[in-house]
Amino acid sequence: MHRISRPSPLALIALLAFCIVQFGAPRAAAQVLGGLPPQILHAELRPGWQTAEGVHVAALHLQLAEGWKTYWRIPGEAGIAPQFDWSRSQNAASVRARWPRPVVFDQNGYRSIGYANELVLPLEVTPRRAGRPVALRGEFTIGICSDICIPVDLSLAQVLRGGTAPDPLIAAALTRGTEPAAGAGLGRVVCSVRPGDGMVELELRAQFPRQGGDETLVIELPGTDYWMTQATSRREGGELVARANVRGSNGGAVGIERSVVAFTILTETRMLAHQGCNAAD
Q: Which residue ranges make up each domain of the chain?
């Protein structure tokens, strides 16, 4: 198994005045010297196990030094969106990430969404040819953050074989995955669009019982190339209300289909998702 963790050129610029990046072996974890934690990141692909249907359940495992964070698939206002490339894998028809519930945190006055100290990201890997091992190879760019934020490039590989017992660490991460919001009492969801200066404002109102603690609503438009601001959300009685601005690519027109609008509600204990909304009465 080959593991490499190397800062990108942007990371070297950010750290030049503070530290020296070294490459260790055999885990090849980036080590940061010069006043910062001596070791900020260990990264590996855990081989996991194979289900009765032939799907491999593996995981990307990131271990960060105390006080460091990495980001969810939607990183928030000040985060760095993770990027994944599995194209160099062999015998892998598809690789699906199953994100565990993140936390919402303040980053210098901006809202970010991610994970503190550790991330176990389960991966469902479907082989092209059943019964054959999968040579899983991933190229990633992730962001890690403490007092400074660093984009880091990773290149990791792992051979996946069948017949192994479930990995407790991956199994625990799967229990913190996405749940249907309907199961938590989600009622009618209404979307409205208002034209603005060079963009449109998308407002979403969801009838949703209070879950206790803070609630954050994240809106997505999957399958589109629109640019969208991070949604701001608040409570209005029995409704959870969120607004975001949407702009077309290259300044083009914006047309939002309500069946495409997807959102995730993050609470302290659950991650609830739904897609689709109705027109306002």
A: 3-174, 179-279
